[in-house]
Specification:
This protein is an all-alpha fold. It is built from seven helices and no strands. The longest helix is centred in the middle third of the chain and has 43 residues.
Length: 197
Amino acid sequence: MTHPSLPKRPMLGRLPVLRSPIGLAHAVTALLAFVIVADVLGFGAAAYMMSVMGDVASGGGAGDVGLGAVDRAVWAVGMTTSMYMLGLLGTATLFIIWFHRVRHNAEVFAPDVQRRTPGWAIGGWFIPFANLFIPRGIAADVLRASQPDPYASEVRHQGLLNAWWGMWIASNIFDRFATNRYDEASDPQAIHDAAGG
């Protein structure tokens, strides 16, 4: 007895494999909490620096306030800045790994709504000016793929994505402005003003 031949399966290449992003999401969340704590401590250090430099500016010099207070203020700002930068570097690294993972997973759910390959979820962050829109577009595609109907005309939670992206851009602009202002401060009054603004 002969069996009918089975149709040959077309070669599709490697199929994407779903990998859980939950562990990475928890790690990113923990690092974000660390960055928030470092940021709050940084605000405290800046307020202390502003107070000390205000006393120096109004009292006529560091001798009236005491060099110990000035040194403590400088140390506090330096320490909180280091904590913040270390936390930010770790958070950014894990976030990009997580972002790549969820983009890769979107390939499983709705590959035809993804406009860029998973590699762009990493590389898009490092291209000047393009990093202002490429990652947001990838996030929108991932968001579309993750909803129950990826082909619906409306994307759920689009407002939340836009708010996150707008706040990210605004915080980057503010950070650069504040850092430049503080770096250019050369006298106690300018440091006082920079620490407050």
